[in-house]
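Would you kindly consider the sequence and fold I have copied below?
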Amino acid sequence: MKKKLKWGVLSTAKIAREKVIPAMANSDLYEIYGIASRNLDRAKETAKSLGIPKAYGSYDELINDPEIDVIYNPLPNDMHVSYTLKCIEAGKHVLCEKPMALNNEEIDGLITARDKFNVKVGEAFMVASNPQWLKARELVRSGYLGKIKAVQGFFSYFNDNKDNIRNIEEMGGGGVWDIGCYPVFTSRFVLDKEPGRLVSMLEFDPQFRTDKVGSVLLDFHEIQMTFTISTQLTAYQRMLFFGEKKIMEIRIPFNAPSDQPNEIYIHEGDFSKANAEKIVLPISNQYTQQAIDFSNAVLEDKEVPVSLENTKANTKVLQAIFQSSSSEKWVNII
C-alpha cells in the first residue's frame, strides 16, 4: 500500500486558500497536514477554516518539521527560489508556484540541490495536468490539424490595485511574469518545440513600473506564435492553433472551470457554417490533477509534470521578452 504523503503549505496566499488547498481535499494519496504564516493567529485561522491539522508561525518551522513530506510554495515571486532551496535542503519535495524564478540562472542552483538531496521539484503549471491540454497536445502531434503554421494567444484581466503583489515591481509583478508565462508554456507544451528568437513590445504602468500590456512574436522555426497579455484590460483568454487542414480553439485555456466540462473546438475554415467539431472533456479540477500527478511522481519515483529543466527553458523566453522590449530588437533565445 502506498504511503499517504503529508503536504505542507508555505503561506496563506489567496491561490492556496481558494484554489489549490480546496482542490486537494479527500485524497487517498495525500493530505494537507500543515500551513504556515509569519502570523501564527492567521495560520491557525486558515488551518481551522480549511480543516488542516497543524499551523505554524514561521515558514522555517514548517520546512523543518520531519512529518512533512512535500511542500507547496505559493509565496510571492521574489521569494520562490530562496524558499524552494530551503525546502530542498531540508529534504522536502517541492511544488512551487509559477514563475519559479525571475532569472533562469537561479534555476541551476535548484537543479544542483535537487540532485544532491534526491528530491522531486516542480513548477506549478497546472495546465500540464489538465485533460484539455493533454488532448490538445495529442491532436496537434497526431497531425489531426495538419501541419501547424501559426499559434495565437490572449490573456488579460484588470487589476490597478497599487498594493496587490502583481503590481509591485520588486516582488516580481507585471503581466509577463504573472500571465505571459502561460501562452509561452502551453505553446512549448503542445508543439514540443523551443522558440529560437522573439521580438516584443511592452507598455509599463508609470506608477507601478510593471508591464501592463504586452505583445510578443515567437519564432518556433517554421511556426509563428503571437500573443498579447494585459493586467489592465477586461478579462479575456483564448488560445488558437492554426493547421493547414483545421484550426483548434481552446476557449478557456488557463482558468479552466472545475464545475463544467472543458471544450475544444475544431474549425475547418468555413465560418459561414456552424461546422465546428466540439470535443468535450470530462469535468475535472486541474489543481486536483496537478496534486495527484506530483504526488504520484514522489510515490512512484517518476518525472514531475513540469521539471526544473522545463522551467529554465520557459524562464529564458520570459527574460528575452523584457530584453527585446528594452532593445526594440529581435532577441535570440539561447
About this structure: The longest helix spans residues 308-327. Residues 86 and 325 are 34 Å apart (CA to CA). The radius of gyration is 20 Å. The first strand starts at residue 5 and ends at 10.
